[in-house]
Design brief:
Elements lengths: L4 E2 L8 E2 H19 L5 E4 L5 E4 L7 E7 L2 H18 L5 E7 L9 H11 L15 H7 L9 E5 L5 E6 L4 H17 L2
Parallel strand pairs: 5-6
Antiparallel strand pairs: 1-2, 3-4, 5-7, 7-8
Amino acid sequence: MADTLLSSRSGTKPVSKTTLLLFLLAFVSVATSFAQSIPAVKANALDDSEVILPRPDSQQILILIVSFSRKSGKLCEVWSRRISADYEADTRVVYYSLPVLESAPSFVRPMIVYGMRKGVPPKELRHFVPIYSNESEWKKLVSFSSPHDPYLIVVRSDGQPVWQAHGLYTDALYADLQKSVAALLTKSP
């Protein structure tokens, strides 16, 4: 019988093999998604400053807003404005919008970046970092489901994600992001 019951001598309730297998699969899935470090980034922000991630020596918490299409880029703007308003002055936190452009034809990329540069407020240019490689790794990390969603990740300085979400901005989702950042800030030296 495929779904036999497992029991113990301690008198606890029996558990089916299927239930145990589903629990283990869910646990491994969650553990694997957070065990993976962010892909290494060495790129230029829109202000031409060099950005290297992760930066384990910095002790800064990272908030990353990842997009895979023009539509998701537009939706990321709402997240970016809110994160900027709350964290720009906090030196313990750094945030970046990471438009992943690997799939865009190479001859079109300069036009895309030019359009971004024109549309981003000057003080935010250093927070926009176009990515031209590791698209499949980024998609795996964020559990990619739609090119039109913005993906958010809160990351320790060593590159380990501690919180992830995707989709439209909501106050509830933003409150969860803030809680994860606050928890990391209380743990940092």
